Amino acid sequence: MTSRKPRRQNNHNPVNLTDYESDAPYYSDMQQQPAPPLRSNEELNLSVIRRHKPSVTSILSLAPYAVVYIFSPTTKQWEKNGVEGTLFVCQESQGDLGEERYTAFVLNRRGLNNFDLPLTDGENVEITDDYVILKAEESAEGEAGQNGIADPLHPQNVPNNQSGTNNVRIYGLWIYSEPPPNSTAESRTINAQMILDCATHAGESMKLARERLEAMRQTSLHLAAVAASSKAPPIEEIQSGVPMGRQISLKDLFGQQRAQDDGWSVRAHHLSPEQHQQQANYQQMMPHQMPSPTPPPQPQSDVLGDLFRRAGLAQQGNGQGH
């Protein structure tokens, strides 16, 4: 029986094919990507609000949950407006007159339309135990909201017979709050006071902006009146102000000659006594020095008639001589 030879172990490692480029680690894979910057809740809320209302510059206060009601003059009761969600009290960019602007914005959870009501005057805000009451003047009938914002002057789910004849709508914001120590315990008080303060400041800012505009208008009218009453510059100043090479109009030319003639007439009427005596002596000397005037020409005679008469006289003399 033949003994089996032990197998030789192959110590050579298998060769792996590679292109060296794809297997090389990339620098971008080795480098750790930086984490995205953290954004605060306020920045996130502001970015969301500005999608619906780009004029918003900052959020002054917010309430996690609020419901919008409208007062029905028919039933004399508060009825839901169809908008409920987070309430934001926001500051907007300045208006056309430079006035400060504020708004109460409710991001609706129950639909695509939001509630947006400008805060224009402190007299339009009233704080009660249940609601923050807001008064708004009604705009033209049939005007719809824009950019997904519910027109607070024409809210949804409101019958047509509820529109009053005085063009005023009354809204009530019910702000959710729980007893302490809950975090929403002061939510209604803080937001209600913020709405009142913003509305009061907006009304005062608008008043100052209108007074400033009226002062500017009065100043412009005064300057225009002063400019109109100012005297026209003299002719010498106008002529000296004409640049070289510029043509002078006939009005300027004859106006200058008329001014000179007027000056001569004034000087002639205001001669001194010595000048009057010299003028009289000059007029006395003039007849002696000046030659006598030539007599006026006599009327021309009839030349042809004289010639014929002379010729007839000559013929008569010759006949008498013969």
Automatic annotation (TrEMBL):
Entry-linked InterPro entries: Dcp1 (IPR010334), PH-like_dom_sf (IPR011993)
Cytoplasm recorded as keyword: yes
Q: Where are the coiled-coil regions? A: none
Any one of the GO BP annotations: deadenylation-dependent decapping of nuclear-transcribed mRNA
Entry annotated with the keyword Cytoplasm: yes
Can you cite an annotated GO cellular component? P-body
A GO MF label: mRNA binding
Q: Where is the composition biased (Basic residues)?
A: 1-10
Taxonomically, the superkingdom here is Eukaryota
Q: Where is the composition biased (Low complexity)?
A: 275-289
Which CDD domains does the entry link to?
A: EVH1-like_Dcp1 (cd13182)
Quote the biased-composition stretches of kind Pro residues, using this chain's numbering: 290-299
Annotated region Disordered: the residues are 1-38, 143-162, 270-322
Give the family per the record.
Belongs to the DCP1 family.
- The entry's protein name is Dcp1-like decapping
Which organism was this protein described from? Penicillium cf. griseofulvum
